[in-house]
Automatic annotation (TrEMBL):
UniProt-recorded name of the protein: Dipeptidyl-peptidase
GO biological process: peptide catabolic process; proteolysis
Organism per entry: Bacteroides stercoris
Signal sequence residues: 1-21
Enzyme Commission identifier(s): 3.4.14.-
Keyword annotations: Aminopeptidase, Hydrolase, Protease, Serine protease, Signal
Biological function: Catalyzes the removal of dipeptides from the N-terminus of oligopeptides.
Short name of one Pfam family: Peptidase_S46
Top-level taxon of the source organism: Bacteria
One Gene Ontology MF term: dipeptidyl-peptidase activity
UniProt similarity note: Belongs to the peptidase S46 family.
């Protein structure tokens, strides 16, 4: 593979003449080569590049890590105390909640280390080392060990990562994980070594009336008054190494933690965010943006909307159900609303027009350049053929894999059938054990069979309205023939009479399994039909996408060359990034101007005791009315809650630290604004805003509402 001038120039730009300061999710390991540090200093940064990222020493990046499976968290004390969002810790809070101990409603405040709650399955990952492996991958392609397309795939990169770990000095060290990933659509490759701590305990979480104040209504909206934070702590063995939970483990002595500034902020102050943005698609063509709108987002809007309506009804009627489905509902509704906002913003902000102009400029640039000429047209041809199948796949997935939880493991059932027919006792015993695990997994503490039944009754006919009969799984034919088109009768038969429907049915089958029982089981037939259709459509979509990876690789490389000497950043892929900008207000529409911060006055203005989303706890209301804010109030005596910056963030940045020019924590990022939800596709400097929780509000809630002064004493607070 030849090395193009883009691969050299993108990491060795000497001049940054017109880069927009706010746009960009920059790789820390390329800051010096891309001279982004100079631009940051012009904006107000007081630190050196090595203070942010130092591969040979301690830096700010060592105070930031991956919280759980999809958020960012930061270390805010020398005792391993983590700050992240309430919605990031929501699954853990829900895991510990019950009707008797409703931490979702009441909040949780550990008053001592002994009260901090172990949270099985929760992990925190620090980036330990980053290695450029571009030359290694390219050499393997050149040697014929792997094709250029396969070099972009997870199987190859996973195998390569394991091989590199085997050669590394980190081999065998506790808690080390490694990932190899492509960047710039495969024009660069990096290897990430993570140090993973698996004893993470819940320390503090405000009640949902604070941590989720505004709920669905305010989600993605400004002005915002949500106290979206929670706190956890990393525990390690006596040597400070990762270890599974043990009562003898001790709080981790971290090499770096963030000092906290309560000096306040003003408009245009420098602000940077370090974190793990999940996914962006800034380099899509116009045709691909249309596919995102019509085939991806619309399927999510339609199918999740049906499920959420059902869940809302049952959660409002029962505290038990509300707790069971709290985390599921929050996760589903977040990107349901995001998809609605994104489609609206794409139209309102004329993203399709912007993409068309970019493609026109690229066509001029590509003239006479063999590797770039006609690339966009070839992408468009693939998308035109693929789009109907992509739409079908997304609707099927959202409805049948994303909404309905009940089903039957038809492959295990097939094994049991085989064992019965062949009289293979060992296979039968093993398969029955697997089936027992599946039954317990389905009927877990966060599952309600009747709620899921109601979802199925709503979602199955809704899906049939969106797809053609031939696009649906075979079980839809069964509904028409056996149940005379009565979806409710089909669902009731499956949820009442299937082997895995309840403990009585299950125990009866396990006591005396028969081939006939399996063949008659409606859930097994349903699951087999569903999976076979999803597999077939997925294979078809993959075949229609053939060649797209290399076209994207060429297109992104070409766009990078076209921009020079301005550097380019790669799309987000849940790796460590830095974005920088300023505290700033915005004006989304004519005659509308939004201030850059909100105060507790807005909490009382929004209060509605009849609406669960806008309930204000009595103690918090008293504190606000009495202006009992302590040292955290602004100079005029008001209490700040949230603020806006121009930082470029997306999902995965939730919980990321907002840091001032001196490297001090001033807030915690948790959302984007409604008007710029097309930002994952096209950044708009005028509209794009990050919504952050002011650290002063965090400390106020922690001290005054949670009575956790002992936690504040752990922190290094700068007044």
């Amino acid at each position: 593979m030849k090395v193009t001038k883009y691969l050299i120039a993108a990491v060795a730009v000497l001049t940054v003449c017109s880069a927009r300061a706010d746009e960009g999710m920059w790789l820390l390991q390329l800051m010096k080569q891309q001279n982004s540090i100079d631009m940051m200093k012009k904006q107000g940064l007081k630190l050196a590049a090595d203070d942010l990222y130092n591969p040979n020493g301690v830096s700010l990046k060592d105070a930031v890590g991956i919280f759980g499976g999809g958020c960012t968290g930061e270390i805010i004390s020398p005792e391993g105390l983590i700050l992240t969002n309430h919605h990031c810790g929501y699954g853990a809070i829900q895991q510990h909640s019950s009707v008797e101990h409703d931490y979702l409603t009441d909040g949780f405040w550990a008053k001592s280390r002994n009260e901090e709650l172990p949270t099985p399955g929760l992990k925190f990952r620090f980036v330990h080392r980053i290695v450029d492996i571009t030359d290694l991958v390219n050499a393997k392609v050149k040697a014929g060990e792997v094709t250029e397309v396969d070099a972009l795939t997870a199987p190859f990169l996973g195998k390569l990562a394991k091989e590199e770990l085997e050669k590394s000095d980190l081999k065998g060290k506790p808690g080390i994980e490694v990932r190899a990933l492509p960047f710039y659509a495969g024009n660069k490759f990096y290897l990430f070594y993570y140090k993973v701590y698996s004893d993470v305990r819940m320390v503090a979480a405000p009640p949902s009336s604070v941590g989720k104040f505004g709920g669905e209504t305010d989600n993605w909206m400004w002005p915002r008054h949500t106290g979206d934070f929670s706190m956890f702590r990393i525990y390690a063995d006596a040597n400070g190494e990762p270890a599974e939970y043990n009562a003898s483990n001790v709080p981790l002595k971290t090499p770096k933690f963030l000092s906290i500034s309560i000096k306040g902020l003003k408009e245009n102050d420098y602000a940077m965010i370090m974190g793990f943005p999940g996914s962006t698609s800034r380099y899509l063509t116009r045709s691909e943006v249309k596919e995102r709108m019509e085939a991806d987002n619309q399927a999510m809007i339609d199918m999740r909307g049906v499920r959420l309506d059902v869940l809302r009804k049952y959660m409002d009627a029962s505290d038990k159900t509300r707790i069971q489905y709290a985390s599921k509902f929050a996760g589903s509704s977040n990107y349901w609303k995001n998809s609605i906002g994104m489609n609206k913003a794409i139209i309102d902000n004329d993203v399709l027009g912007t993409k068309a102009k970019q493609e026109k400029n690229f066509a001029e640039f590509a003239k006479g350049k063999t590797e770039y000429e006609g690339v966009v047209e070839r992408i468009d041809e693939i998308i035109a053929k693929r789009m109907p199948v992509t739409r079908q796949l997304n609707y099927l997935y959202e409805a049948l894999s994303g909404a309905i939880e009940f089903g039957s493991p038809y492959m295990i059932m097939h094994k049991i059938k085989t064992a019965l027919k062949e009289k293979n006792d060992s296979l039968l015993t093993a398969s029955k054990a697997q089936l027992e695990e599946v039954f317990n997994d389905i009927h877990n503490k966060d599952y309600d069979h009747e709620v899921d039944r109601a979802v199925a009754k709503a979602i199955l006919p809704a899906l049939a309205q969106k797809l053609q009969p031939e696009q649906l799984p075979v079980f839809y034919q069964t509904i028409q023939s056996k149940y005379k088109g009565d979806y409710n009768a089909f669902v009731d038969d499956m949820y009442d009479n299937s082997i895995l429907a309840n403990r009585t049915n299950f125990d009866k089958f396990m006591k005396k399994p028969t081939v006939k029982a399996i063949e008659k089981d409606p859930a097994t037939a349903y699951s087999r039909s569903k999976i076979e259709k999803l597999k077939a459509v997925s294979i078809e979509e993959k075949a229609l996408s053939n060649g797209l990876e290399l076209l994207h690789k060429a297109y992104i490389r070409g766009l990078g060359e076209m921009k020079l000497p301005v550097p380019s950043y790669p799309d987000a892929n849940f790796t460590l990034r830095l974005t920088y900008g300023n505290v700033k207000a915005y004006s989304p529409h004519d005659a509308i101007h939004y201030n850059y911060y909100t105060t507790t006055d807005g909490i009382l203005e929004k209060e509605n005791p009849e609406d669960r989303e806008f309930v204000v706890p009595a103690k918090l209301k008293e504190l606000i009315l009495n202006k009992d804010f302590g040292r955290y109030a602004m100079a005029d005596g008001t209490m700040p809650v949230c603020f806006l910056t121009t930082n470029d963030i997306t999902g995965g940045n939730s919980g990321s630290p907002v840091i001032n020019g001196e490297g001090q924590l001033i807030g915690c990022a948790f959302d984007g604004n409604w008007e710029s939800l097309s930002g994952d596709i096209n950044f708009d400097n005028n509209l794009q805003r990050c919504i952050a929780l002011d650290i002063r509000y965090v400390l106020f809630i922690l001290e005054k509402l949670g009575d956790c002064g002992h936690l504040i004493k752990e922190m290094n607070i700068i007044e």
